[in-house]
Structure formats: C-alpha cells, structure tokens
C-alpha cells in the first residue's frame, strides 16, 4: 500500500466507511443481539442493524459497523462463507457495505442512463468514469440552451 498508514486512516475517517459490513443469509429469527454475538469476537461493534421489511420481519441481512477497518476485514476473513444459518438458502455473506459514495455514483449513472446519455465506457472506469460522466452532465445542465 503506497499510501502512508496515517494518511489512509484519515481518509477512511473522513468517509467513515470501509469498516461497515453488509451481512447476508442470516436466519430471519436472529436478533441484533445474536448478530452482535457472532461478530463481537473480531472487534468493537459501533452499530448493528438488522434490515426489516415494512411488516417488521427480518430480511435475513444486517449491517455491522466496527470501530476500525482492520476489525471489519478480520470479520470478513473469518466469517464469509464459513457457515450456513438454519433456514438460510446458502452460506453466510459478509462483505463491505456499499458506501454512500458508491451509491451516489450508481444513482448518477442511472440518471444519466434515463437521460439517454449513458456512456458504456463509464462501466470500465468504475468510479472515475461515473465522476467524469457526472462532470460532463453538470456541464450540459448548466450550459444555457
């Protein structure tokens, strides 16, 4: 990693991300406490939220936020694919949660697509492509017709 550790730490602190996990394929009967117990072995958990439908029933997935990136990574390494919960159709999924930034990029790409300006190149470039595209959309929108 060419970026000095302290710079990297401050970058992730700014975004507050890359320590938040998405957990899928949970048993729908598992509570926040159950999930917390499963994950607390790997570090200090700041938040644990089970995603629920409008009826209040668990969707079988959750977000778990650790106090550091290293703890989150350790949980992924240890738990992803490690076990199948009773009633779940496949083994536990543990991955980094989508950051707000990535969601914003995707939304911009969808909007661009709806405006008929979707650029297939943006897919290859990932975030940078979406950013460049957003800049060009911004230019189009702010240019007087």
UniProtKB/TrEMBL annotation:
Molecular function GO labels: RNA binding
Xref: Pfam families: RRM_1
InterPro entries referenced in this protein's UniProt entry, alphabetically: Nucleotide-bd_a/b_plait_sf, RBD_domain_sf, RRM_dom
Keywords: Repeat, RNA-binding
Keyword RNA-binding on entry: yes
Residue ranges of coiled coil: none
Residue stretches making up the RRM domain: 19-99
Name of protein: RRM domain-containing protein
